[in-house]
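Quick note —
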Amino acid sequence: MGCRVSMRDFAGAESQIEHKASGHWPTSLQELSEGERLVLWAFRRWVSGLEHLPMLAREFDRQFRQVEARPALIALDAALVGLTRHARRTIVYHQPCCACLGADEVCIISIVAALQNDATAAARAMAQWLMRGEGVDGFTAALEDFADCLTGSGHDLPYRTRPNNAARGTTKLSRPVAMRLH
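Predicted structure written out below.
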C-alpha cells in the first residue's frame, strides 16, 4: 500500500528554525522549516512519477497565492526537467514519506534558499555540483522563478551558509561513503 500524506501531514508542526541566516545544514526532516519542507515535498512528489503530479498541483493551489500556484508548478517542472537532462550523476532522493534527508535533497533546498536571499553565485556553485555546465543557467533561472513564487506566498527559506561553529574557509564538504533510497 502506498504512502498518502498531505503537505500538512508532511510538514508537521512549524519548525523553530530562524528564518534568516541559519548556522547549520539540516540532516533530518525535523530540522527543516515549513518552507523547506514544502520544497522537499514538491521535489519528492515530482521525481516519484506522473501519478503524483495531480496531488502536487492540488497542494500548490493550497500553499501558494492563486496567481502564483501555476507559475510555481511550471517553474519547478522546468527546473527538474533540466536537472534530469543535465545531471552529472544519478540524483539520490528518498521516497515521499521518508523522514530522512539526503545530500542532493539538501542541495536543492539550499539552492532555492540562496536564490531567495540574492546569493546567486552560491546557488550557481551548488547547481554545478548537481549538473553539467550547459544546464546550470536554465536550472537556476527556473528555480529563481520558483523561489520568487515561494517568497510571494510567504514561504521564506532560511539561508544556511555553513555548519555550526565552522570558521569561514574551514568547512570541508565530504561525500557520503554509501547512499540508499528509502
